[in-house]
Fold this sequence. Notes:
Strand content: 25-35%
Number of domains: 1
Low-confidence stretches: none
Largest sheet: 4 strands, antiparallel
Helix content: 25-40%
Order of helices and strands: EEEEH
Structural class: alpha+beta
Shape: globular
Number of helices: 1
Mean pLDDT: 84
Amino acid sequence: MKAPIRVGAHIEGVHWVAEYAEATREIRVFREGRELDVYDAPRSMFGQEAEAGSPNEADNRAQEAALLASLRRYVTEREAEE
């Protein structure tokens, strides 16, 4: 089983983490170490690279960047709701 991709960022003074599990295609969001939400990853999030075979270093960085962008978008939308 492949290890989940995990990224974190400090946004507005709060530590956020997103974790993508390829097996379930879900993104878990943590705020200050506590799980806050789970949602399905967008189908286009990692493109066809994930199906093309063994990922290289650039593919891994691209996946982390996509997950970080998703996390930032999630936080922005959540803050707008509150």
